[in-house]
Design goal:
Blueprint: E1 4-11, E2 20-25, H1 33-43, E3 48-52, E4 61-66, E5 71-72, H2 76-90, E6 95-101, E7 104-113, E8 116-122, E9 127-128, H3 134-144, E10 158-161, E11 166-171, H4 174-179, H5 184-194, E12 198-203, E13 213-219, E14 224-227, H6 231-243, E15 253-260, E16 268-277, E17 280-288, E18 290-298
Parallel strand pairs: 2-3, 4-6, 11-12, 13-15
Antiparallel strand pairs: 1-2, 1-18, 3-4, 4-5, 6-7, 7-8, 8-17, 9-10, 10-11, 12-13, 13-14, 15-16, 16-17
Helix pairs in contact: 3-5
Length: 299
């Protein structure tokens, strides 16, 4: 019986027990879907990443991602965690690796500095859906316990994605953001109607010059009541801000830092870079630190 090597990594932070925890199985070859789902449920993080040997010459690894209840096509913080754990285990030098995921082959940059690593993930293609109609907007506001007056007036409510879609909801107040107590049953029901499981509520209400946004992400339909720090929300938020002309940028390049996890004491930061072509987001990257919590072998 082979030894299954597991790390737990906190992503988007350098401080243990902050940021977003993810499980990482470094040698997943031979595990069945049922095995992976059981391990993800046992670790009980929002996502666990499973690293497989490459099936072809086009990629260096294949990675699959499981929440405690289902498989998802991609995950930002679990990708950061997976490559951070791989870098630690194999003592990698700075390099760019190609990972095969359910949304395609994505380059991931590993940057080694002072015996630690930062990881930069190129996300999938950016897409933006039409603005919600009034009826759907009212259902969403009711589920989030928000009033229309709480909304940031210039921010349309839309679904965007870089591989794993989220609903973008801009509000005026960080205090209001931190007091949100959504109706998870209502959000789950709405997810079935709109075909999107994640709700990212964000605000520009920041008292830090280098932090543009604060956010919270809820995805009860896939077993995630609240995700601490979400790469697949902050990344597409960058594309959303560019396409809706909500930010200024120069030379076809927009960069910002987003914070998340303040209310649940898991504060972390995502650095987002957007390459812009004719006013449209062309490429989205997220960058983050990470820290290892434990390494173990599954008995």
């Amino acid at each position: 019986m082979k030894n299954t090597l597991i790390y737990q990594i906190d992503s988007f932070t350098t401080e243990k027990f902050k940021g977003n925890p993810a499980g990482v199985v470094l040698n997943a070859d031979g595990l069945s879907d049922e095995n992976m789902q059981a391990i993800a449920k046992e670790l009980n993080n929002s996502e666990t990443a499973f690293i497989f040997s490459p099936a072809d010459d086009e990629s260096d690894y294949m990675i699959r991602y499981f929440t405690p209840s289902i498989e998802v096509p991609s995950c930002g913080h679990a990708t950061i965690a997976a490559l951070y754990a791989k870098a630690l285990e194999d003592n990698l030098s700075s390099c760019t690796l190609r990972i095969r995921t359910k949304i395609g082959i994505l380059p991931v940059e590993v940057e080694k500095t002072d015996d630690d690593y930062q990881i930069t993930m190129t996300q999938g293609s950016f897409t933006l859906s039409p603005e919600f109609d009034d009826k759907t907007t009212q259902k969403l506001l009711s589920a989030l316990h928000l009033d229309s007056s709480d909304l940031e007036e210039n921010c349309p409510i839309q679904i965007d994605s870089t591989g794993h879609s989220k609903v973008m909801v801009g509000i005026k107040s960080r205090e209001k953001l931190n007091r949100l107590q959504p109706d998870m049953t209502a959000l789950t029901a709405l997810s079935k109607e709109i075909g999107c499981n994640g709700y990212f509520v964000f605000t520009f209400d920041s008292d830090h010059e280098d932090i543009l946004t604060y956010g919270r992400m809820f995805a009860p339909a896939i077993g995630i009541t609240e995700d601490p720090v979400t790469g697949n929300a902050n990344g597409p938020l960058g594309g959303y801000l560019v396409q809706n002309q909500l930010v200024n940028y120069q030379k076809d390049y927009f960069e910002f830092n987003g914070r998340q996890g303040e209310q649940i004491n898991r504060l972390g930061m995502v650095n987002v870079k957007v390459t812009v072509n004719n006013g449209k987001p062309e490429l989205v990257k997220i960058k983050g630190n990470a820290v290892a919590i434990f390494k173990t072998t599954l008995l």
